Amino acid sequence: MVIHKRITRTMLDNKAQYLGSLVLILISCLLYTMFNQLSVNMDHITSSFETQYVQEDASFVTDKALTNIPELESKFGVVIDKGGVFDYAVSTDQSLRIFAENDKVNLYALIEGRALSGGDILLDPAYAKAHHIKVGDSIRVEGKDFTVSGFMSLPNYIYPLKKESDLLNDPDHFGIAVIGKDDFAAFHRGSSFYSVKVQGDPDSADSILAELKNELKSQNTVILKWINIDENPRVTAVTAKMANMNKVGAALPVTILLLTCILTGIVIWRMLKKEAVMIGTLYAQGYRMREIMNHYLRYPFVIAVIGGMIGTLLGALTLKPMLGFMVAYFNMPIDSVRFSIAHLAVSLLLPLLFLLISGTFIVRRALGHSPIELMRGGGQSRKIGFLERRLSLNKLKFSTKFKIREQLRSMPRSLFLLFGVALATMLLLLGFTMKSSMDFLLKDTYEDAYKYQYEYVFNSLQQGHPASGEPFSMSPFTETANGQKSFIVYGVRPDTKSISLADKAGSPLRFDQVIVTKPLADRLNIKQNDTIGIISKLDSGRYSIKVDRIADSYIGEYIFMPLTAFNEMLGYPQNSYLGVWSMDKLHFAEDQLLSSSSASDAKAAFASVTQPIQAMLGIISLMSFVIGLIVIYVVTSLIIEENKENISLMKVLGYKKKEVFSLILNSSTYIVILGFIIGVPLLLASMQAMFQSVADSTSFVLPVKINYAYLGLGFVIIILIYELSKAFSKKKINRISMIEALKSRAE
Amino acid sequence: MFMNLESVQKSYQTGDVSTPVLKGVAMGLEQGEIGVILGPSGSGKSTLLNIIGGLDRADAGKVTIGGIEVTGISDAQLTEYRRDCIGFVFQFYNLIPNLTVGENVEVVSNISKSPLKIDEVLKAVGMLEKKSRFPKELSGGEQQRVSIARAVVKNPQLLLCDEPTGALDFNTSRDILKLLQQINKEYGTTILMITHNTAISAMANRIFKVRDGEIVESTVNESVMPAERIEW
After folding, report:
1. Less packed terminus of chain A by CB within 10 Å, N or C?
2. CB-based contact, A283 to chain B, within 8 Å
3. What is the pLDDT of residues A86-95, one digit of tens each?
């Protein structure tokens, strides 16, 4: 139909409004496609990695070597691989964890280069990249030169954390490597651990592993450490991050689509009002409602199709670089990139669905008038709104009254602006809040709560008093009522100087009592004075503990109890301990240690990880800038369009340019400020909900905090966007001629 | 009679108050004739035209156009009636601003069963040369010519003109009236026009004077004057 020729012309005449909607849809589809295709691929990469390279179901450390592995394997239907590991200190603040090559479980996946042979070493790619090591380079370990034959991933070290309690990995200071069995044996150092994979039905894995533990216990083998794969943070970090990404991937595009629906709805409504006479004329000439409807629905259709296609295409193009970005964090091999047709279809159809539904609603409402009403101006409501009528504005200055009335007159427009500014604020402050929260967590955790600088964990129980440092013990447990997920019970000296915890009121807690950290109390729903039943992960022994106090700490799912009580409960000798905390670096024989770490490692990891966060913060801030600019600019142009006659009249009456700008362009200031004010608590609440929902898989509760300086900066940026869009709009006001607008009034 | 109205009544409700606008109007027009409805503002002539054109409904009475009883048909049938039988010309032209002259005419030819050729109609109204111009590039008179072309292109049985010269100067008005008379002769289109201007009645076959919702005088004009001779 020839009438459809108007579509391109109308769109070109009102570029800002249509381009605004188009860009919003584009962003929304880009984000949807990027997040969801990434999620599909990461799921695929993770599951194929786990299967192909035989990811362990659990790993454990015993006090003595297992001599009957083949019997255990056939008795329980499992595969057990004995692994060897030691940490090689490359420099004072950099260490490389060297593993011996496994043959049955946790096989390395070669990402680049060639497989191991004598004198070769394989590195994790993030570490290699951080230290500019290339395939073919030579590196020295313990005085022996190795050739870097390639890069690899290990299925039990997808997220290469140095300590299990670490939050973030740090390739600048820590990496993993695999060498051949013979090369490893030649070092005559390191400790052993066992990786076990249950064959057959994965559902029976837990019971088989429990039986295996009992068997080891019955053979007088003490299990010093046991970690199931679903509790291994080096693997579960992927799940947690993916869960977060899926939430963002679902919520953000839909929110932006809703914003687009409102924007397009307002633009179409305005167009229908403006074209009421024309629509009435078409009716009069015999056009049917569905023909007119079909015409007006083409506007949202065109925007949704073009925006959807470009956004989906751009989203698909970002997949490969994003996968590269992800595997730089989660060390896994990418076998192939796949596209989910379902997600591509949703990305293309979702904006169509959203916009056509909202468009139909608006067009139907506008076309409901008779041809005569339409030809008389479209049955426009000339009523004064309830709010406008009720508000007593008499005492205010004329300019203030004018601005308030301008906002009250078009509530959908004002709501769109409010919603848009709130969303832009939320996105803008998202990165800042993440950073503030992490800063707070670091300070609260490492500086205020955990005072020690070094932690040494032995591979067998020690007796008596350590020569220096403070003794402690630790053991993993699960709660009898709450199943699988484990936590650590620490035995500490009542006069400990290494840890300082406080209750909710901020009062310091004494360590002659049983203290539970807040993340664990929240998960297990424990209150002060509750008694809980716990099961040892090492020997399946059952115990009960009365909880005296809850510590208001954000990190770690821990129970602290006096060391003597701990030893007594587990039947250990009275003066025994498993580790030492110290302010100074201590020296122990390497074969005595299960692990060692320092607080500075954690700080260094944190510092190096804030860099990608800052990059992400930049991208999100840019996106919020674009959304904010679109929303404010479109609303400002709508205000100008709707006030064309008033602007013309003001000019006729002798208003100066500045005065006209102030009255028309500044009328949205209140809404912009209100949008910012609403955006802040909305962001904090949604981040709180997001952190809480992933707390289960991360074992820490990230406190939602925002620094006042960032808040101020966010406000300045929003106001800057507002000023920028006002500056763009000034030209439009200047272009309105006095004669033209008055002529249109006469007609 | 091609057009026949019997006791047509219409009133508008504002709250509890009912205002009668047409109080039993009866009038008729033969096929191929030009009729003029004269009357002051608020006399009900636009309402009458709207009812005849199927844009509004009478409360009572009977309206028959070309054998179709307009008063008794559904909304969908009314749309078909407007689509197939009626052409409208408005005082303010109501052209679509971002379509060219040719496209504005095409808007109607698109939905017509047996439209006339667009170029032929544009030539008839003297706008063929300006077929590719947009409405804002035309004078008022030229825009009204396009509006007439748009109404005529569907070859309507009845052409309804609502103050077609109301926004135009004398010379342009006379040109438009000449054009309407020419179309009436060339295509045999029955035309009903409403106007304030009594001088225009000289070119009509029948003249209906409306006052306060009633036809106060209905005259058959035996000596129809060519539009170019009309003066006011």
Report:
1. C
2. yes
3. 999 898 888 9
